[in-house]
C-alpha cells in the first residue's frame, strides 16, 4: 500500500511525533514528502522554532499559523536589526537598577522600586509599568518574573553583623508565598567587617536557588552565599579575596570566577560547584570541594588578571511569565557565558572578552563525573567552544551584555563617523543559515594559544538618531530589546 493513499490528516498527525531533524530529513525524500510538511502550519512552526533556537510558549489564544508568522517576523527583525520603537526615561544617578527577563527595574527613593515590562511588537508583548513600595531600606535587589520573585538586600547598618535578604513577590511586594515563614534569609558578617557598609552585590536566581556575591575591593575578602530560597537552607558559602563573579551553569552547578588560583602561575580560573554537595563552612575558593576548575588564558606572561566579570542570561530553565502569553521564547539548551578579563598595563586597564558556549563546560563536567580524570582543566583542553573578541573597553560590574546566544558589544563602534550597535549571534543553526559575508570565523586577536571553533554572525545597525550624540553609553541586550544606559542619568530602549 502506498503511503500517499493514507489520509493527509493521518500523515500529518504521524509527522507531529518526529523531531525537527527527522522532519527535515523526511522533507528531502521527495516532492510529496516535502509538500506534507510545507502545507502544515504546525510542522513548519516546529521547524522554525528549531531553526531560530526558540521554544514554544504556553497554550493560549494565539493560533499556530499566527505564532509562525510572529516567529518569522521576530527572526527577521534580529537578522536585520530593524528598530520598531524607541523610548527614553530618566535614571537618577543614585538609583539601583536591574535588567532581567525583559523587565527593567530601578529604585525610587530608599524603599520603592519601579518596574517596566519592555515591549515586543513582534511577539505581542505590551509595555506596562508598576511600582512596589517596601518596608526595607534597599541596598540592592534581584528578580525572577517567571516565579514572581523579588529579592531585596537590606542596607547594612554600621556596627551590626546581621544581614537580611527579603523574599517578596514581584507583583505586589508581599512576602512570597513559597518562601520560609519569615520571608527572610539571614547571614552574619565577620565581626571585623561590621564597620563596612559599602559592599557591592551580584544577585542571581535560578529555579529554587538564590545566589548573592558580596563584593569588596580585590584586596579584601568577598563572600558567596547560595540558598534554597523556598526552604531557607544554605547550600554553598565561599569566602575568598580572589573571587570576582559567579553564575549558574546548570540548575545544580554554580560557576565562580577567580582572578588568580593555584592551578597555574597567575592563571585566572572558573571553578564549578555542585549544589547537591553541601559546602557551608566558608572556606576559600580552592579549599571548598569543587567538581573541577577551568583555566583561562593570560593576556601575556607576568600580566595577572585584575578583574574577571561574567555575563550569562537568562538562568538555566528560565521561561517568561506565563501571564504575558508569550507565543515563544529563547530556548534553554543554548546559552553563552561571556567573560571580561581585565589586566593592568600601567597606566591603563586593558581587557579581552571570551565568549563560551555553556554546553562546552557542561560536557566536560559530565565526562569528568562519568569517567573521572584530572580536575584542573587546562585552557588548551576546552578552548574549542570559545571565541576571543577584540578589545572594546572593560565592562561595568553589572553589565547585561548577553541573552541566550546573542551578545552586544557594550560600547558603540564607529563606522564613517556614525556610531553603531554591534550584535554577535553565536547560535549554531542561525550561524549556519547566515550568508558567508556575515560570518566571523577567525576570532584570533593577539593570543597565539587561542584556537576556537565557535563562529558567530555579526550584525551592525546605527544607533537611533536620538542617541548618536550621547556620551558614555553602555549597551545591553534582552530578548526583544537593545538597552542603552547613559552615565549622565538616562535610559534609552529600542525594541525589535
Keywords:
496 residues, alpha+beta, Methylamine Dehydrogenase, Chain H, 2 domains, six-stranded antiparallel β-sheet, five-stranded mixed β-sheet, 34 strands
Count of helices?
Answer: 8
Low-confidence stretches: 442-450
CATH architecture of the largest domain: 7 Propeller
Counting DSSP E segments of at least 2 residues, the number of strands comes to 34
Please tell me the total number of domains.
2
Quaternary state reads single chain
CATH fold label of the largest domain: Methylamine Dehydrogenase, Chain H
Describe the structure.
The chain has 2 domains: 3-78, no CATH class; 81-495, Methylamine Dehydrogenase, Chain H, CATH 2.130.10. Helix content is 16%, strand content 39%. The protein is built from 8 helices and 34 strands. Strands 26, 27, 28, 29, 30 and 31 form a 6-stranded antiparallel β-sheet that branches. It is globular and about 80 Å long. The N and C termini lie far apart (50 Å). Mean pLDDT is 84; it is low at 442-450.
Reconstruct the topology from this structure.
Layout: H1 8-15, H2 20-27, H3 31-38, H4 41-52, E1 54-56, H5 64-80, E2 85-90, E3 97-100, E4 103-108, E5 112-117, E6 128-133, E7 138-144, E8 149-154, E9 162-169, E10 184-188, E11 200-206, E12 209-215, E13 222-228, E14 233-240, E15 243-250, E16 253-258, E17 269-274, E18 279-283, E19 292-295, E20 305-311, E21 328-330, E22 336-345, E23 348-357, H6 358-371, E24 376-377, H7 379-382, E25 386-389, E26 402-403, E27 406-408, E28 413-415, E29 418-425, H8 428-433, E30 439-440, E31 456-462, E32 473-477, E33 481-486, E34 490-495
Parallel strand pairs: 14-18, 19-24
Antiparallel strand pairs: 1-21, 2-34, 3-4, 4-5, 5-6, 7-8, 8-9, 9-10, 11-12, 12-13, 13-14, 15-16, 16-17, 17-19, 20-22, 22-23, 23-25, 26-27, 27-29, 28-29, 29-31, 30-31, 32-33, 33-34
Helix pairs in contact: 2-4, 4-5
Amino acid at each position: 500500500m502506498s503511503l500517499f493513499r493514507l489520509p493527509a490528516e493521518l500523515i500529518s498527525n504521524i509527522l507531529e511525533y518526529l523531531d525537527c531533524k527527522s522532519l527535515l530529513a523526511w522533507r528531502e525524500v521527495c516532492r510529496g514528502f516535502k509538500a506534507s510538511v510545507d502545507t502544515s502550519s504546525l510542522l513548519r512552526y516546529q521547524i522554525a522554532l528549531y531553526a531560530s533556537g526558540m521554544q514554544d510558549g504556553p497554550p493560549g489564544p494565539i493560533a499556530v499559523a499566527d505564532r509562525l508568522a510572529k516567529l518569522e517576523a521576530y527572526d527577521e527583525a534580529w537578522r536585520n536589526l530593524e528598530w520598531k520603537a524607541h523610548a527614553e526615561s530618566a535614571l537618577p544617578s543614585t538609583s539601583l537598577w536591574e535588567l532581567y527577563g525583559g523587565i527593567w527595574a530601578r529604585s525610587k527613593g530608599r524603599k520603592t522600586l519601579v518596574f517596566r515590562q519592555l515591549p515586543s511588537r513582534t511577539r505581542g508583548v505590551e509595555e506596562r509599568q508598576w511600582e512596589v513600595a517596601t518596608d526595607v531600606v534597599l541596598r540592592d535587589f534581584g528578580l525572577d518574573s517567571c516565579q514572581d520573585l523579588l529579592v531585596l538586600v537590606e542596607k547594612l547598618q554600621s556596627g551590626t553583623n546581621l544581614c537580611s535578604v527579603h523574599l517578596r513577590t514581584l507583583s505586589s511586594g508581599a512576602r512570597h508565598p513559597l518562601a520560609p515563614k519569615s520571608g527572610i534569609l539571614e547571614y552574619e558578617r565577620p565581626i571585623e567587617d561590621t564597620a563596612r557598609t559599602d559592599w557591592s552585590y551580584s544577585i542571581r536566581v535560578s529555579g529554587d536557588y538564590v545566589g548573592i556575591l558580596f563584593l569588596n575591593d580585590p584586596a579584601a575578602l568577598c563572600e558567596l552565599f547560595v540558598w534554597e530560597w523556598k526552604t531557607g537552607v544554605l547550600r554553598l558559602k565561599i569566602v575568598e579575596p580572589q573571587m570576582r563573579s559567579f553564575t549558574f551553569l546548570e540548575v545544580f552547578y554554580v560557576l565562580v570566577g577567580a582572578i588568580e588560583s593555584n592551578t597555574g602561575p597567575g592563571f585566572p580560573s572558573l571553578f564549578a560547584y555542585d549544589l547537591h554537595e553541601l559546602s557551608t563552612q566558608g572556606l576559600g575558593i580552592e579549599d571548598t570541594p569543587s567538581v573541577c576548575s577551568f583555566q583561562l588564558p593570560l593576556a601575556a606572561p607576568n600580566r595577572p588578571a585584575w578583574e574577571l566579570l561574567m555575563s550569562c542570561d537568562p538562568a538555566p530553565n528560565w521561561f517568561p511569565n506565563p501571564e504575558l502569553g508569550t507565543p515563544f521564547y529563547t530556548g534553554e539548551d543554548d546559552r553563552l557565558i561571556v567573560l571580561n578579563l581585565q589586566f593592568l598595563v600601567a597606566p591603563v586597564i586593558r581587557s579581552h572578552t571570551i565568549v563560551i558556549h555553556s554546553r562546552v563546560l557542561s560536557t566536560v563536567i559530565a565526562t569528568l563525573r562519568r569517567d573521572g580524570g584530572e580536575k584542573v582543566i587546562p585552557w588548551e583542553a576546552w578552548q574549542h567552544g570559545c571565541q576571543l573578541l577584540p578589545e572594546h573597553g572593560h565592562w561595568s560590574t553589572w553589565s547585561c551584555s548577553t541573552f541566550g546566544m546573542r551578545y552586544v558589544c557594550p560600547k558603540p563602534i564607529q563606522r564613517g563617523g556614525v556610531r553603531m550597535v554591534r550584535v554577535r549571534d553565536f547560535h549554531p543553526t542561525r550561524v549556519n543559515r547566515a550568508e558567508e559575508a556575515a560570518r566571523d570565523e577567525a576570532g584570533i586577536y593577539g593570543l597565539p594559544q587561542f584556537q576556537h571553533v565557535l563562529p558567530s554572525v555579526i550584525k551592525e545597525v546605527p544607533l537611533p538618531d536620538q542617541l548618536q550624540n550621547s556620551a558614555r553609553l553602555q549597551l545591553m541586550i534582552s530578548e526583544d530589546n537593545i538597552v542603552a544606559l547613559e552615565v549622565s542619568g538616562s535610559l534609552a530602549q529600542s525594541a525589535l
